[in-house]
Amino acid sequence: MVDVHLRYSGNDLHGVTAKVIDMPHLYVEIHPDIRKQFWDAQQWPKHVLVRYTWEEQSEIDVAAGFYVLFGSGLMLSFILAIYVLQSSRDKLARFVRETVAESSLPGEGLAKVE
């Protein structure tokens, strides 16, 4: 059997490789007459089974593009979150101070004035 492997991208054919291999047992079961005719010296022309496989090679690697896109988005989100936390450090500290002060008072004590 001749195994032909074709590589293409769009309408362009980038490469072809061909090799002679033994027919798989499944193919021998499907085409038993080809085997008999091949080994019969009186039978001409000889029939040869050819298997074509096509492989598409994309110029753009979609998976790598998604990894870069989502990775950069995650990194940007992380940097933005750190920036927001640093810019509101005073407000956050005041909030924590007031919350801890209220929760540490025994009972209903003082009212806050802003």
From TrEMBL:
GO terms for molecular function: helicase activity. The chain crosses the membrane at residues 64-85. Keywords: ATP-binding, Helicase, Hydrolase, Membrane, Nucleotide-binding, Transmembrane, Transmembrane helix. This is ATP-dependent helicase/deoxyribonuclease subunit B.
